[in-house]
Amino acid sequence: MLKKFFLLCSGVDQNIINDCSNGEQNKYAGIGATVFFTAVMAMLAASYALYTVFDNAYTAIFFGIVWGLLIFNLDRYIVSTIKKSDSKWKELAQASPRILLAMIIALVISKPLELKIFEKEINQVLLTEKNQMTLDNKEQIAKQFEPEIAALNNGITALKGEITAKEQEVNDLYETYIAEAEGRKGTLLLGKGPVYKEKRDKHDAALLELSQLKQENAVKIQNNEAAIGQLQADQKQAELTTQPIISNFDGFMARINALGKLPWLPSFFIFLLFLAIETSPIFAKVISPKGEYDFKLEDEETAIKTWVAQKVHQREEMLQTDVAVSSKVYTDLKEDEELYNHKRQKANELMQLQADSFFEKQQKLL
């Protein structure tokens, strides 16, 4: 039962292979088994690749089965269409397009399985990339908010600077009127005279302005700090919003790129393995000598080809004979007097009818 299934997979003619020896059947059963297991591996590879894309097992398995059947049909077609001949070079030339197609199929099959085999290493590469992307993302988002935050901080610094300058002015006025009272500066007279009072009034006025300035600037500083807090909250929210995009950066294409950053030699050997598996049925058929099945298949094909050629030749001969007979018949009819008189009479009647019809039309016009 299993042998019949593998023979079916190899694409051989069942009627011919059943009449062949057991060894010949085993050879083609081996080729069919290779075709079948290549399709199974293609199905597994496609299912894994599609699972990384859709993140749904049922969808991945369904399309994986479809892909496996497609590869099975292609491989079966490739093997079944290679015909044995007396020249190996002719066979290689015949198989070269199919070998190229097998290389493409091997590449498509091997890549998803490489992703699974090197999954841990790929995850490490993706983690490093995600961390760098997170840092870059924070830096880019910060550049959007930093100018406005810096402007608000500069405003706070300026407001505090106004208060500091006013405090220094008040302290200077305080020192001036105290020095006047002690007789160290100004009039150099000890006591609280008119000059002292004038300087004391300037100090008190400046102190009142300082108090008002502190109140006004405190409100402005508080507003700026609230605005800074809101901007920082918006910045944090932007980081949280974009982080899931970075966290989900592990799709099929991202894994392919991460695989490309790993050492190429292991991936290359895996590709060679699948290439050997994919092309082995083709090379097995090309390298092997003509067997019993090939001779019987050639015998049937040449028999049909000869029969078709005979039928075509017979039709050509029949056509040539018919043309020759028809030519002779019409040549003889040229000399037939009875046929001439009959045709002359009919032509005369036709001319009379045309003349009568023309006369009737002209009479109606008048």
TrEMBL record:
Q: One Pfam family, please name it.
A: DUF4407
Q: Any keyword Transmembrane?
A: yes
Task: Show the stretches that span the lipid bilayer.
Answer: 28-51, 57-74, 264-287
Which keywords accompany this UniProt record? Answer: Coiled coil, Membrane, Transmembrane, Transmembrane helix
Superkingdom, taxonomy of origin = Bacteria
Coiled-coil regions, chain positions: 149-216
Q: What is this protein called?
A: DUF4407 domain-containing protein
Q: Which organism is it from?
A: Asprobacillus argus
